[in-house]
Amino acid sequence: MAPISHPQDLTADERDREDLARLGKKQVLKRNFGFLSMLGFSCTMLITWEGLLILFVQGLTNGGPAGLIYGFIFAWIGTLAVFLTLAEMASMAPTSSGQYHWAAMLAPPSCRKILSYLTGWLAVTGWQALVASACYLSGTLIQGLIVLENPDYEPKLWHGTFLFWATVACAVFVNTVFSRALPALERFILVFHVLGFFAIIIPLVYLSPHTSSHDVFGRFLNAGGWSSQGLSFFVGLIGNIFAFLGNLDDALDTSTGYPFMEIFLQGTGSRKGSAAMISIIILLGVCATIALLASSSRLTWSFARDRGLPGWQYLSRPHGGSTPQASVDCPPKQVEPRTFLPLVSIATTTTIAILLSLISIGSTVALNDVLSLTIAGLFLSYLVCCSLLLYRRLTGGIIAARNSTPSTLLTTSVHHSSNTNSTHQAQYNPLTWGPFRLPPALGVIVNALACIFLIVITFFSFFPPVTPVAPSTMNYS
User: Fold this and answer.
1) CA separation (Å) from 331 to 320, 324, 341, 469?
2) pLDDT (0 to 100) of residue 329
3) Mean of the pLDDT values across residues 52-77?
């Protein structure tokens, strides 16, 4: 192994190349995001407060105002535990392969390959469904805004599908034609994300009627018809948010399809003002789709590069060769040589999203189905990694960085023969903690809490929103 340079002697790009080389990877996609661009990218993709407003209808139906508040606290603590656990793994192996690479490095040798393969498919499936969910939400949000502004408009399911396709087209356009400007765009969206929050919360708090504390913290609903309030609460966790303002019955019966739009109208008393606030959320939702398409297409390309997808030869075949690895100076055929974009992966992700959009034409609960598929795929991939890290932590399978040398770092090497039947060989040296690591006792608690949270959420993500279950309300995920 070549000697490792001192960190202070390296540029950010050189450190990236060194980290990838340590993991047996070569840089292919161009890395042009700085700190603010990455922060904006993450905030855009998560759309925290925007997503909470959009998706709280299931939590409002199953749980009510009090269920939304306590469910939000539960979800916040659980998600924090998951992200802290993922951060430890990302610190150990910072690679775009993500969960399936971590599963391979943490799993026992006897089940390493199968767990890594299954985790990769779960992650790719979850991300593909997440792109479709974001496009569907953006399209139907535009539909809801039209209903709010024009009560005579009769929305059709296929109208939302066409708006879905328009959102996809916008995301593809930005990710291909304007890809060089994406970092600057993400910085702008970060500012818009923060300012938009205050532009919405201030009018609502100031203009909306206020209810009693009991209605907010003590009123539970079980409109889904479940056998107990506790079961209803857990079913409602899927679309959790706080919804403290407005008349709940009117909000749930709104013709726009999204209760927050009715709450905005009740709070401001102005259709124009409500439309302006809703437009902020729609615009940020479309921006989230752009970021999600970028992430999903790159994960698809990465998994294909590691031969995890059918047709990997086409998705990741290098320029002028037959091996899936390439240097940045010789990009793969399916990475556009001028912009270093995985164009075929972008096209594949777009096609899958369009095909999934057809579900919405025939089902009124398509959103819940696609969203549950997203949660199940991503959370199961997280669960595999978090469980394996907990196993390694409890068995002492990871050594401290101060007790290691560069040769003890995890290395995944891919060797290829000269013929078309080349095979992968991986070398796994003793696992070493990265720069970020929780204290031992706290790490076990957080890791275990993350696993419990993931199991609970994944289990209830397959539940239908209401009972009794009919074909039109079944959760087909």
Assistant:
1) 9, 10, 10, 51
2) 38
3) 83
Give the distance between the most distant pair of CA atoms in the chain.
74
Contacts 24+ apart (CB under 8 A), 223-232: 223/61, 223/62, 223/252, 223/466, 224/61, 224/62, 224/465, 224/466, 224/467, 225/466, 225/467, 225/468, 226/62, 226/467, 232/62, 232/63, 232/67
Coil, strand or helix: which one is 337?
A: coil
What's the mean pLDDT in 470-476?
Answer: 70
Q: Which of 460, 456, 377, 446 is nearest to 77 (CA)?
A: 446
**pLDDT tens-place string over residues 352-405:** 999 888 877 876 566 556 666 777 888 899 999 999 999 999 988 888 765 444
Question: Using an 8 Å Cβ cutoff, are 263 and 278 in contact?
Answer: no
Distance CA 59, CA 235 (A): 8
Name the least confident of 141-155, 216-230, 286-300, 366-380: 366-380
Tokens of 381: 């991939």
Residue 367's SS3 state is helix
CA distance 300 to 330: 20
What's the sign of the alpha-carbon dihedral 62, 66, 69, 71?
negative
- Interatomic CA distance for residues 31 and 325, integer angstroms: 17
Angle between helices 48-55 and 271-305 (to 10 degrees): 110
| Residues 403, 207: Cα–Cα separation, whole Å | 60
In tens, the pLDDT along 101-111 reads 999 989 998 89
Structure tokens at 99: 């969960």
Question: For residue 437, is pLDDT > 60?
Answer: yes
Q: How far apart are CA 197 and CA 86, in angstroms?
A: 27
Q: Are 340 and 31 contacting, i.e. CB atoms less than 8 angstroms apart?
A: no
Between CA 88 and CA 283 the distance in angstroms is 33
E strand or H helix at 329: none
pTM: 0.79
CA gap 415, 423 in Å, rounded: 7
How does DSSP assign 27-72, residue by residue?
A: --S-----HHHHHHHHHHHH-HHHHHHHHTHHHHHBTHHHHHHHHH
Interval 281-288 mean pLDDT: 90
Three-state SS string across 65-84, please? HHHHHHHHHHHHHHHHHHHH
